[in-house]
Batch of 4 targets.
Target 1
Amino acid sequence: MKSSTTYRRPVFRAVLSTTLVLLVAFTGAWAQSDATTQSFTASDGVEIHYLVEGRGDPVVLLHGITGTAASNWGAAGIIGRLAEEFQVIAVDQRGHGKSGKPHDAASYGERMALDVVDLLDHLRLQQAHVVGYSMGGFITMKVVALAPDRLMSAVVGGAGWPSPELRDDAMFDALAESLEAGKGGGPLVEFLWPGGEPPTPEQVQAIGQAMVASNDQMALAAVVRGMAGLDVDAELLRINKVPTLNIIGSNDPLKPNADALVDVMQEHRLHVIEGANHMNTLNSPEFVDTVRAFFIELCNCA
């Protein structure tokens, strides 16, 4: 299941108006249709909320930082599309949405991956497919390492190998400090910026504040401080037996993390969406079509 790709430096062509439209799509409201909202208490006492829609093999969805189950997966139409054939369980991860928001970094990192195991235990599910995007993708990688027996498959979107060598610690430190000071997500805006020209300070400020408008910034800072707890050792990748699909935009600054898995991780397949960046990959029809085809291939139920 291995494939290779040639790395190219990101070439960002989107303009500010596109960025703002995508931001609204990620943070806007979503009509929950047939989804039901439920919650459970994780093994460390934090309350975790999630949405359930559809019937069939279970698929757990893990959103990116500052997002929610509804804003990341619902607004992109992915919950509805997958719910046509699967039971979709979309989580508000701790520190986000309706879930608990502890302010200590020790409550995040690996603990966010263990929430997935706790969720499966709560639902009495032995296994599930898990799909994560951005931060959710790195969490999915940690679940692959910690609890491979609980996974039918893993889909890692907008992310790749969580490791010290590939992590931009300076950016994460700046982001945590900005959030702790109540100044929003500016450093993340600069890191993920999809424009050909660097953003102006005014653009960074406006978008950075919009990203965290409905969030607890101290909780988000703790999430960022705990990111190192998601690191995965290379040896666990070499012995991996979980079918893993990695989807990344060709212009995503996190593409090197995805490329790094190709020659290390067993049972790994890389799918690159040409021309896509970190902000619009999730909204591409190619993303959900590729995920659905991967699941159908695994079950041989086309």
Target 2
Amino acid sequence: MQAVSVRGLSIGSGRPKIVVPLTGSTPSRLLAQAGALAASPAQMAEWRLDGMEQGDDPAVLLRTGAQLRSALGELPLLATFRRAAEGGARELSPGAYATVIETAALGGAVDLVDIELSAGEDFVRRELDFCHAHGVKVILSYHNFQCTPGIGELLQRLRLMEALGADIAKIAVMPRSPGDVLTLLDVTQEYAAVADCPIVTVSMGTLGALSRISGEVFGSALTFAALDGASAPGQLPAQEMARLLELLSPNG
């Protein structure tokens, strides 16, 4: 597997890198959250565009992105507009969703953009090519808040994301039993051994917390942790996440 390097951060080697979401609804709240990251173990920030009051306005995105880049220094920044169907704050039309992605890629502040696999293969190819043409890496993501599909389906989705050109492939699913968590971990271990790009896998909720801290063992390259507001069910506090990753590291 080829690790992905972003502002000196190697994604896909060593311990999972800690990503902390910025969930503020206004630029001032986002900037306050960004300022707090310096005293945290965050290794990447995730700007949740869907949580902003004007998160689909290109002018607001460009202005806020520049302010965040100044506040974050060299901390990598991932931009995510999570649509309602995949657990986000609101829905967007395909055209508006494309505009948000392209604005984030054009602004110069963002290092990675999340694109949802559910947007469709043609959409994904077009937006992925756009991001790459502007030097921005892409996380392709699949979310299922209802259940954990079987091993075969999850492996198929990871293969598709790689085939489409993902720099990083991400799956987040909801467990209904401990066996579902094991399914996710089995998929992670199996695919990480053959993947050409880093993968990120999450079993959500309290039941799936083990998946968030075991990435170094099973092969998940990023883990999402909260500072003052979780962006998905089951996120642990960032300080606790850092402590657990160190405690459970097979490499000491």
Target 3
Amino acid sequence: MFKYCIKRVGIAVLTILFIAIVTFLLMNAIPGSPFATEKGVSPEVQANLEAKYGMDKPLPVQLKNYLVSFVQGDMGVSLKMQKNREVGDIITEKFPTSLRVGIFALIWAVAVGIPLGCLAAYRRGKVLDNVIRVLATLGVAIPGFVIATTLLIVFGVKFPILPTSGLNDMKSYILPCFSLGFYPMCYTARLTRSSMLDAINQDYIRTARAKGLKTGKIIFKHALRNSLIPVVTYIGPLVAYIITGGFVVETVFTIPGLGRYFVQSILARDYPIIMGTTIFLAFLLVVAMLIVDIVYKIIDPRIQLGKAGE
């Protein structure tokens, strides 16, 4: 267990390093400068600004300097969005907002998606199963921005009964959390139904039926535990994505979270914020995947962690 965790931490570090390098190179391959404005700046001023922030050096040197500073805990300062403010402070300020929205969205997506998948498997071929499958298929097929925009029009324009911008009270969380969690809920329901139907055909389920156990108890108690492994695999990276804020959802509902700020930093070519946010998301992703492997062991003790990633 300990050796496996050390191995995974090493792989995680290499993964984050690779993502940082690729992001840095792609970011600098885009034409333009973060110091360019609509009014324009003189070549002398732009050269001075690039020299101030170390952007006048060759690209490999810039990359090396950034990685060395990052390892030392320095993610640089914002170039445009909040000029000269530490990127770490900006992430610390914006992330809690995205975290709250993401946690609420994740809770309702899992709390509704898994039971719906179980019900669909329990009522296989019946009307309820067909309704759930159609709903889940629509939820997976429709893009997130369409869901968010539709909710905004319906409940903000046609029937203005819910707040459609900001997070001023608990009611303000309803629309963004529903929008952010709708796709994961539908996908979780489909995944649960599929894995549940596979589990139902296993030998231990036939044994349970032979002992006279009721179908409901077999599905919701015995089959559910083993069928959760594919669901946990999906939820792992989903947690990292959803708690950093849905970029589209935060933009549509004007939520001052990390996701919306990340989009704005890309438009503004604020390189340090782009790098810091990307690495932060990568860190959350690899941590989530490590936790998933540990949860595997809790769900099914037969799983050997040392062989889980091989």
Target 4
Amino acid sequence: MNILENYFTLDLKSGISKLDFDIVNEIRLRAGCQVIVTIGLKKYYLGKNGLTSMDNAIIVTNTDLEEFLMRACEHSVYAVSEYIKKGFVTIDGGIRVGLTGTVIYSAGEVLTIRDINSICIRIPHEIKNCALPALQYIYQNGIKNTLILSRPGAGKTTFLKDLIYQLDSNGISLNCLVLDEREELNVKSRFVDRIIGAEKKYAISSGIRSMRPDVIICDEIDLNVDLPSIIDACSCGVNVVATIHAKDIMELKRKKGFDYIFENRIFDRYIVLDNMDKIGNLVSIYNENLNCIYSR
């Protein structure tokens, strides 16, 4: 039995138990709607006996959503309240569970999300060697400041995890400080130190002082929020490898803050991924001047 089955109510558990989690990428539960399962780039409906037609699909109830969240929180919503207000929780195996519902504010800040109406369960997969073709461009007499970009769900986290593995397996003995804000980067390595659950501003400042990293590795930066901390890291002689949401270089250029990182050559490499053929598919690599130095 897949451990994920334990999070579902009885009807859902029956259908979920029939799935092959080696190929499932996402399960989406929306109140009053059919359960949708994504495999590769295709979407399917889920019935009590597995994949089925829309007419025979399980309809998600509010109870299904409430029970899933309570089990994901181990029946203590308070314990994971900081995650919930950011719109997600993480469960066993580094599985990210996205949440939508009614956002509650207090003094102008998000207090929590309640009355959950939709849950998106993203199943991580290891794709061994997906980062290997890029390694020679990222590591050349030291590691390059690198920004990895793709649209959501195209494999940034998968690529990042394999890059950590490649550094280790190729004998590159750098002290890697991994900022695992969403508990999705649990990669075993001889050279990895891991700060879990902290915002990047705190993790970068604290980690540099306490762990003497050669490189900081982090997922899903927001230039509006995280750019000052990244600049601080680079100015301390620590390299940064990070990911960001952008489907291509043109979309990246439109982001607020990009002009600064380009004009000051904060990043030496820009790596573009997509999921047209498979998750974490390497498309192209650009240097600090945005000249293409690799294309698939």
